[in-house]
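User: Working on a comparison across species. This one is CHM4C protein from Caloenas nicobarica. Can you predict its structure so I can line it up against the others?
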Amino acid sequence: MSKISKFFKGGGSAAKGRGGPSPQEALARLRETEEMLSKKQAYLETRIERELAAARQYGTRNKRAALQALKRKKRYEKQLSQIDGTLSTIEFQREALENSHTNTEVLKNMGYAAQAMKKVHENMDLNKIDDLMQEITEQQDVAQEISDAISNRAAFGDEFDEDELMAELEELEQEELNKGMRDVRLPSVPSTSLPSRPGKLLPCHFTFLMIKPCSSSRKRAEDEDEMKKLAAWAS
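Assistant: Here's the predicted structure for CHM4C protein from Caloenas nicobarica:
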């Protein structure tokens, strides 16, 4: 039996005796292995660069030493390639184990939730639930009827005819309009014709009725004096 077989057999027996490693322990071991291989990988890369530099240094002056350096470089490259493959395998195994652990935890929590739901529903009677929902629906209907009854406009004062009220209102408006027309007093028209005097402008307030308004810059006293003169002349 090879040493590798004995190693796995012994490890399996130990794991079986302890009931098997937990997912957390297995993941920790895998991460440790990845870290160790990464360090070995960095070491081999350094040795490869060193042997390559030595081969360049010896060159054709010392072919034997140069060839030995290249051979060591080839061995290191082979080990480095093996480590790359091992790291890929360990990474795949670690991801699979992490996914399995996650799925296990999810299923466990879902099982707990199912048990909790079952415990909650133990004291529930479907017939009682139907009766309760029916009662709630009936009370909602009653509440809606009460709200509709309260929101409807009360029929206070509906004994009066709206057409008669509108007719009375129109009569009142017509009376107010007629009263306003009676209170309006129109100015009297002069019985004699006004003399025309060429070269002399008519008073400002007389031209207000014929042409254009008076300038707002005139003083109130001057306006009153002009009105008095116009009234005396017209009479």
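For your comparison, note: The two ends are 153 Å apart (CA to CA).

User: Helpful, thanks.
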